[in-house]
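Entry 14. Ran structure prediction on the chain below.
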Amino acid sequence: MYVLIAIFVVIIAGLVFGEVKWGILRTVYNPTKRSHQFISMLAILPCLVLSGLFYAYISDPVSDPVAYPLTQGVNRYNPYIQQFDAFQKGQLFIDYEVSEELNALDNPYDPNQRIGIYYLWDRALYESHYYSYFGIAPILVVYYPYYLVTGNLPSDAFVGLFFMLLITFFVPLIILDLAKRILKKTPLSLLCLAMVAATFGTNVFLAARGVQPYYYIAILSGMAFLAIFLFLFIKGLSSVKFSGFVYLFGAGIAYGLLFLSRVNMAILAIFIIVPSLLFYVFRLTNGKRIIGKKTLGLLSLATPVVITLVFSCWFNDARFSSPWDFGNSYQLTVSDVSKNTLHIKDLGLSIYYYGFQNLELSNQYSYITFTYNTFENYDYFIYSDASMSLLVTPLMIGLLLSPFIIFNRKYSVFLRIIFPAILLGICFVAWLNFSLGGLIFRYTLDLCLIGTLTSTIGLLLIFERIRESRHKWIQYTGGGLLALLFLTSSIVSLQIALITNGNLIVIKESVIAFLETVLPFLNLMG
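Output, structure tokens:
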């Protein structure tokens, strides 16, 4: 604790010295100045470097490529490799025979009936075949290119690194691009801190440590394509020139890959897409209604999305005899998932657990740890594991401050509509996750990327109003507090990613000792 206080004192002293000497809290970001462009791009480096360090020292230690054809039984591999192997053999089902004992069960989806029977864990069982219900985007984007180049298949760690680098590159770029378009008075120093804090706030590094990495490949893939989609979508909507159509076409491809990675993230993105497209269509451009060009823009975006949806319907129908069946109801997991249904009465609970859940206290910074919940007196099953809410990350406090934007007429109509739309989307997807899945921190990760981007931009927008104050001490206090929030949030996000428990890959003691030496405020050893 004393180390942490000392660090904050040094930071405050540094901010005061920097402001007196160079005016770092007064130098407003100017996207046309090359020096500002260079400095802001430098803020991406720590995010990319940390991705590499997690790959090398902290994530899944097995980084050797996987030989193909497979040298062991197909049951020994993750669902992405199993699905790749199935494609190579010209079939959709996993090339592993379902046991007679499993086929003979009245309800093989009831875990109590499967006791003592060997089966492929958490695969879909349909008409005596195993299927992978995981989205195939990672197979298309990583596994096949890797195989074509090397003749082998990538390790889980390599796939995770690939998507981590995409996330940690595009998230700060989104903040930077939004700063150009909607922020007018943001200091360059705060913007750089915001870019790092927002990237850490996605909890991408926590996902990199998930046990059974294939679950987190789905999360990382979804986050990566969501970040790429938002970046291209924002740039595409800002122009009706040819480049805008190219950006929107790319955004459509990214959304399609998002849909083929993590459907719940794709659903959350809709709450941004719909109001944004309405403003895109009805907003005047240079005082004119450019109907033809905007129609072309919509077609550019919609074409790859429609192709993806049609393909997905065909793929579902070919496997499960219904275009709308993704195979989730056939999972061989901890419960009979087919019995999970949406209950409107659980909306409040889902918002509480995913947004405001009470955190367990720890005797070390950041004084929190994952929460385990038990659900009793339910007439249906709720899965519960190590879980966390969005507000575990201090940066997410910006979501609670959104009403200052929503009800303030000084902000544009678009901002006052998009913020409540995003909040509604977060609540809706939290409800879906809680009702159809339950509680575990990887479900929270569905909400983190859009949550952290929304919160960061919201805080910067509110700070712009603070800068309008006539009192300098209010401006400086606001800037200093926001800088501390960004720094604190980055530290907390890093520590959360380094918590060791049964749901995360155990970090080597030598690595923890090194981290304790160079980053003593993390207190990893307790």
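Residues 67 and 152 are 5 Å apart (CA to CA). Will compare against last week's run tomorrow.
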